[in-house]
Amino acid sequence: xxxxxxxxxxxxxxxxxxxxxxxxxxxxxxxxxxxxxxxxxxxxxxxxxxxxxxxxxxxxxxxxxxxxxxxxxxxxxxxxxxxxxxxxxxxxxxxxxxxxxxxxxxxxxxxxxxxxxxxxxxxxxxxxxxxxxxxxxxxxxxxxxxxxxxxxxxxxxxxxxxxxxxxxxxxxxxxxxxxxxxxxxxxxxxxxxxxxxxxxxxxxxxxxxxxxxxxxxxxxxxxxxxxxxxxxxxxxxxxxxxxxxxxxxxxxxxxxxxxxxxxxxxxxxxxxxxxxxxxxxxxxxxxxxxxxxxxxx
Length: 297
Known about the structure:
The chain is an alpha+beta fold. About 40% of the residues lie in helices and about 25% in strands. The strands form five sheets. Strands 4-3-5-15-6 form a five-stranded mixed β-sheet, with helices on one face.
């Protein structure tokens, strides 16, 4: 019996589609279909109920999957344990992050990553969508904000905070901008994220939180473009520290209210490393976590 066909059955059961599995494996749906058909012929039972919209397990398929999935996982774990005895990790690591974080924080690390792990293939999936780690076969994800999902393992990469920034030229020529409430008189640069486009939260040194309504005529979905507009002097923007600290240090932006903790949703945020919950962490994931914590933490 081909173990790879068992892995395909597990993935089809999770994703409910030959096409989805084929896309994640960069192959043709027909090859996935043939593999499942071969497995069904070998067993002499139908494992999947095929409809025009979705694949679903038959009763026999559910029983079979419940028995083989732990065995396949144990086999994969055994392989990983043997590989981890080698000093050099191998295989393919699928890592996902947002576009802005990937370009700002991960891109500059790629030469060092390749030099550190020459036999490890990296698939860097930069998207602002929160991919399903299991269905998309993602080994490691970087998410920003408070903890949300409960079915994954979290490792804090670093604490984050937001800064209200503007260009030095804008700051010099702007109306009064001494207190957060003064923002009401300015056309702010706004993000399309929920709450970011309507009001910002400010916590002072005494722990008192105030809410300031903001408005503006530029609403932008990409944080990189939002930062570029702030640098160009088009108005104040609320941006993450990992995105603007270099611009502030080099004088392209100024932080307007450094004495305040600022956010739009949650004042306690972080960059998190996420991976599917499992009893054994693969060697390739473990070294990637250590590398990212060392260089970004």
